[in-house]
Every structure is written in C-alpha cells, then in structure tokens.
C-alpha cells in the first residue's frame, strides 16, 4: 500500500475557478485513473468542528486518536523532528517569524514575514536572540532553531531541574490551544501578538507563561534593533519583527510504534520537521527522496520501496501553501503539477494488481479562508481488486457520492487494509 497525503488539498468553490474547487478545476488524468480503479469517500481528519493543525491531523490520519490530555503538542513534535535536545519538563513551542507594523503596539502585518526567508537571515537573527535574551530566573536557558521558511522551534529549559507545564496559551492569535491540541481560528484582518497566560493554577504553568512572555517581549526588542532587519528593509524585504509562539509541549510522546499497531512494515517519505518528528515518534523508517518539490524522485523511491516494504506513507507539500495565500489558481496549477510529476510517474512504477494506492489529505485549506478548516477531505482507495463505485475523479463533490462514505481520519488505514485483506482472502493468499 502506498498511502499519500496531499497537504491541505481540500477546498471550497472559488470564484476565480468558476465556482469550482482547485481539485475540480484541475486537469488530473493520473488521479482520475487512480480514482476510477477503486472507491471514494470523505474524511474528517480530527473531529467535527475542529480545524486542525497538521501535526494532530497527520497523527489521526495514521490511525492515532489522541485525547486532549495525552497529546504532546506540536512544539515537541517539531523539536524531535529537528533533533533539538528535549527532555520531559522542558517547554517546546512552534513559532513563526512574523512582521509587525511600526506603531509599537505589536500589530501583525504578516504572520509569516513573507514566508520565503533566507536561511542565513533566520539563522543569524536566531543566534542574536539566543545570545541577548535574559530571564528573571538566570538559570533559564533558551534554544531558537529556525527550520524551513518562516518556521522556527523554541525550547525553554527551567533552571534547577524544575519542570514547566504546557498548560499555557499561545501568543499567536491565529491558533488556540485546546488541551495541547492546536486549532486554527478564523484569520482576521487585524491581529496583535497575544500575551501568554497559564491555563491552570499550577506553579509550573505560571512559570512557563512568565518565561514565554519574557522571551517574546525581549525577542521583539532584539529583532527591532537587529542589523539583519536593517539589511532586509534596505533590500525591500519584510522584517523579522517577532516570533509568534503556539502549541506548547512539555513531555516526550510515548505511543505504540506504527509497525506494531498494524503488523506491517510501514515506512515514509517526509520533508517537514513536523512529519519527520511524527515518523521518529512512530518509529517509521524514512527514505530520502529529494527536496519538497522533487516529485518525480518521491514517486521513484515510493514505488521502489515496495520491493522491501509493504506500506509507505508519502506526504506531499504544496497545495496547503497556496490555500494559506488565498491563491486558488496557483493551487489548481500545483495539483496539476503533482498529478503530472508524481502520480503519473508512480503509476508507471507499480503494478496496481499488487499494490494499492490510498490518497487523502491531512486537512482542508480553503483559499477563501486563508487557513485550515473543518471541512471533510476526499479519500480514494484504489486497487485492481476493489469494485468501482462510479466515481472517476478525486474531488470533493465526487467523494461525497463515493461508496466508502464518511470516515474519521483514524479509520482510513484500517478501512483500506480491511478492503485489501478481503481481496487477498478471496484469492486464497495472505496480505503480508
């Protein structure tokens, strides 16, 4: 089984596409062939009414249902993904470099500071913050680790071996923290950096909120006087004015390994820190397959992996960013590029009588929202032995008519494996 998640591919009808979604407007002959060779349905990745962040959505799409109480938080997952030294009791947060206006009131003009930030700039300004920030407790230390584009991970370590609690609010106004689970809020035209507050009455939560606010306030001041930003302004680039923080975590996640859960040899092709962190937590073998947009290489590696693995999860970036940017035409064109460069090559490299292709998304990112939503995403389970259901395209509208119906994210893999095992049993063979 090759299991592909198209990041944020789900959408809503858009005027720029004649009232169609990007999936509906896109020309996708390879995806059409896959959809025609199986059955379709829809998926709510985390839960009704929840516009999830990618971390909790991917965990669910891999079959892991987390309650609010036992989720580690995206900050921890990304820290693991990039190899930060993290121990229980540390505080890890996901961050965005963002741009503020010049009013001094911490009004946000761009939550992603232009999104495409040169690594030299993000690395240099992160080092400035690490070297200059101070805390009321001088034993507190901080690690600031930029990753890709506007993304950054921050780890706070309390002095004296005392733990922090992750029961704190975000400073990023676009996301709320519900019991450790990040949930997207509606993106407003006017947003300000929020003050972090403890979410329970513990001393550990109060200490975590205090340290987070000290870091946030001082980082704004340090970045405001940075020569890096002076050079960026002179070059016509957006300033790196602050770090918006969210999704705190203070414990290492301990979960059942994915191969143990399914009794299979599961591997992955992933690029981003959050998906890399998930693969490490679930103990999945990760294959190298080029950069974010090396779609042909990902198709080649995925198909060749079937010689030694019997399941591989492939996370494809691209559609989500166009959704956040509100670019429906760009999202349509990106879907077409992925169809041509990934799915067409994948079909050339596999035998669909032996290998199933399962495709869905971690969440929907509608262009009209500029952010994640709780809308269902389409799903396709494709194999020569699966009876068709009349659906011929992977789109939101056709998925609503598919035989599979509505699934929870955590049920996608079990449903696909159940269908494939019934095929194997019908042939008198075993799916190993």
Features of this protein?
432 residues, alpha/beta, eight-stranded mixed sheet, six-stranded antiparallel sheet, 14 helices, 16 strands, globular
- Mean pLDDT across all residues, rounded? 93
State the distance separating the first and last CA atoms. 11 Å
Shape annotation: globular
Order of helices and strands: EHHEHHEEHEEEEEHHEHEHEHEHHEEHEH
- Evaluate the radius of gyration: 22 Å
- Class from secondary-structure proportions: alpha/beta
Please bin the fraction of helical residues: 25-40%
Description:
With 432 residues, the protein is α/β, with parallel strands linked by helices. 34% of the residues lie in helices and 19% in strands. It has 14 helices and 16 strands. It has helices spanning 22-25, 29-36, 54-61, 74-82, 119-132, 203-224, 227-234, 258-262, 273-281, 295-305, 319-325, 328-349, 396-399, 412-426; strands at 2-6, 38-44, 91-100, 107-110, 141-146, 151-157, 175-178, 181-184, 191-192, 242-249, 266-269, 285-286, 311-316, 357-360, 377-382, 405-408. Strands 12-11-13-1-14-15-2-16 form an eight-stranded mixed sheet, sandwiched between helices. Strands 3, 4, 5, 6, 9 and 10 form a six-stranded antiparallel sheet that branches. Strand 5 and strand 6 form a beta hairpin. Helix 4 (74-82) crosses helix 9 and helix 10 (295-305) runs parallel beside helix 12 (328-349). The model has no long low-confidence stretch (mean pLDDT 93).
